[in-house]
Amino acid sequence: MNEPIPLPTDLLLPTDAESALDVIAVGAHPDDVETACGGTLAKMVRQGYRVGIIDLTDGEPTPHCPDVATRLAESVRAAECLGVHARVQLNLPNRTLMDGFVARIALARQFRRFRPRIVMGFGQKTPMASPDHWQAMQITDAAVFYSRLCRWDEHFDGASVHAVARQLYFRLAFESDVMPGESHHLIVDIGDCLEQKLASIAAYASQFDHKPKIADRIRAAALVTGSQAGCWAGESFASAHPYSVSDLVRTVMSV
Q: 22: which residues sit within 8 A by CB, 6+ positions away?
């Protein structure tokens, strides 16, 4: 517990930096969030909500990216495509990312800083993909809890406690829409924001230019997900806990 917490890199901040965010999406690497829920983030921005992204690591090295600076610049362009208000990189180690005290506190500090109502993060393992994704899920779960703990001020530089109201789990575009073990699923209609999602993914030239069919695959995955809920394109989430609605008709009819 005496290991230093890495200093975060603020890649993008709102002009009124003192105001809270409504939603934060947490990824292990730059491009995780765009692939998983970029359409939903863009839609929430259009609806007037304040949205942020936190990347636990810089995602490097990767085979086709020359340096960290290139990947970070791509992540800023991707955030601009979605219109989000903030993007922060926590400078935790890529490839060897592990759930632990340092990572938990680093993320919880950002929750206390930005005070989101909703946190989105990984909800399942991603077989044959980076094990950092599974670690990111555990880190996010713990950070949501740590953020609300009182009488632990020495780890938070004086930032007041913050209780996240709702936590949602996302999955990457090519994973199953239904997350085993999670009983409360929902699909967000992203038909009017699908092109923004695809543009944000295309911003990562170092990661996707050598995969010429990636846009077609992500578009197809969104269409299949949306078709299950009667919309043109969708993104799937699971809720960490059940939640109530006050207007059943408006919720069910998406009005």
A: 44, 49, 50, 51, 116, 117, 118
Who's near 21: CB < 8 A, 6+ residues apart? 14, 50, 51, 52, 85, 86, 114, 115, 116
User: Which one-letter DSSP state was computed for residue 153?
Assistant: G
From the list 231, 192, 199, 228, the residue with the least C-alpha distance to 214 is 199
CA distance 49 to 70: 29
pLDDT tens, the chain, 255 aa long: 678 899 999 999 988 866 799 999 999 999 999 999 999 999 999 999 999 999 999 999 999 999 999 999 999 999 999 999 999 999 999 999 999 999 999 999 999 999 999 999 999 889 899 999 999 999 999 999 999 999 998 999 889 999 999 999 999 988 888 898 888 999 999 999 999 999 999 999 999 999 989 999 999 999 999 999 999 999 999 998 999 999 999 988 876
56 touches 196 (CB < 8 A): no
Residues 5 and 103: their CA atoms lie apart, in Å, by 8
Q: Are strands 118-122 and 23-27 parallel, antiparallel or unpaired?
A: parallel
DSSP three-state, residue 53: strand
Q: How buried is 99 (Cβ within 10 angstroms: 0-12 exposed, 13-18 middle, 19+ buried)?
A: middle
Nearest Cα to 153, choosing from 189, 105, 118? 105
Residues 6+ apart with CB under 8 A from 29: 55, 56, 57, 58, 59, 94, 130, 132
| 99, 131 contact by CB (below 8 A) | no
Q: Has this prediction a pTM greater than 0.70?
A: yes
Q: What is the DSSP letter of 5?
A: P
